[in-house]
Please model this.
Amino acid sequence: MQRAEPLKFRAVRLIAMSESILIVDDERGIRDTLRAVLEDEGLAADAVASGEECLKAFERRAYGCVLLDVWLPGIDGMETLAQLRAGGVDAAVVMISGHGNIETAVRATKLGAFDFIEKPLSIEKTVLTIRNALRQRELERVNAELMAELTEEYAMVGESVAMRALRKQIAVVAPTDGRVLIYGESGTGKELVARAIHAQSRRAPALFVEVNSAAIPEELIESELFGHVKGAFTGATAAKKGKFEQADGATLFLDEVGDMSAKVQAKVLRVLEEQRFEPVGSTSLVRVDVRVIAATNKRLDIEIEQGNFRADLFYRLNVIPFELPPLRERLEDVPLLVEHFNQKFSAAYGKKPKRFEAEAMEVLQNYSWPGNVRELKNTIERVVIMKSKMRVSVADLPPVGGEEPPAASFRFPSFKEATDAYHREFIQRKLAEAEGNVSRAAELMGVDRSHLYRRMRALGIQGRSERGVIS
Ligand SMILES: Nc1ncnc2c1ncn2[C@@H]1O[C@H](COP(=O)(O)OP(=O)(O)OP(=O)(O)O)[C@@H](O)[C@H]1O
Ligand SMILES: [Mg+2]
Model:
């Protein structure tokens, strides 16, 4: 699905859209009066005299709301309602009954009726109920639209072996409620994976609550996570629920867990062990049912060795580990991602999608993408905004990762800058080929490993040693 116009305009249009109403009653007087009243209110209405005619009417057009009499000749109102629902009709149904009858009202609600009004009909109450029913329906529709937009916003693109395996793993793990720890370099899609797990879990209708431990000042994080009572500290003028409580019955995404202080780690550990905690300044325990998905771009095993991260917390969080491969290890996904972002940003900026020439695509596919998918996304957004012509050639690409593509080396002012740029590109490609392993890259290039290291340091290129550690 493409975003044709900005979301808020679409939502407004939906709210403003009027829908027509179908009146179903065997009494002619009621049909005529209701129709006249609704038309005076600016609402379009049709009227029929039986359940059978109601079902037929829905074959012709979709009504937003049905006023449905319970007592009807032929199939009655309840049966009509059941058949409408069985046929997938999602109109808001308001039942009309001759005598107040709780049992009928309950049955109608179970069948999905929106409300129930009694004869003799009060005009005011009828109009109000219909307006409420229409508003409710519109809200539900807007909500469904927004959910679809979100699903699209968080779509995971990629058909590489690694991405397919990742999707499989998500499908297996999502329904289990098991704790997940996602490791991956910055921009590899950790948040997307967390959202996908939530979306495919039984907690999907509930909230996906996010906390980024790195983005919140140290002195606020405890209150952010666990809430506080009024007067717990200067500035705590009212009690506030923390993220753990907001995520009760839902999913809590603990982003950048590697950045939590020792104190917060201890408190989080306790929630994970006991599913309860004390808000800041309170002595009473709050009990919660939270599924925790954590993410980090730090190697927690090393953080543990260095005494920065609690091993017991690591084991609690790391029930199901996910490791996201950097983009340079799945460069075959680059064309799909380029196309995805090309479509997305072109639509968002109201432009025709661009056509990437084969050579331009090749340059993009040969780059090592140290900023991973986020870097690629930003690159394509820039191209879509800055370039007015349809075709994108190598020369139209922004300098990926701060370097010029090789063909543009002639633009450099000095010999040194040109050769440095070339060397940087060459080394990065070889590193990508060697999956980040410096020794193997040195072998591929036919140079000494220590020589390569020196060049990399001089050029500011990061690499990975054999232990898989960023050096
Ligand atoms: N496979 C993918 N398909 C489509 N978009 C993706 C994919 N992976 C990442 N993205 C997009 O790239 C951006 C970065 O992804 P995300 O925020 O999930 O990364 P991250 O691993 O959480 O990064 P950081 O460590 O910097 O927080 C987001 O805009 C996301 O929508
Ligand atoms: Mg993130």
Summary: The CA atoms of residues 145 and 269 lie 38 Å apart. Residues 190-191, 255 surround magnesium ion (ligand 2) (CB under 6 Å). Residues 1-17, 402-407, 465-471 have pLDDT under 50 and may be disordered.
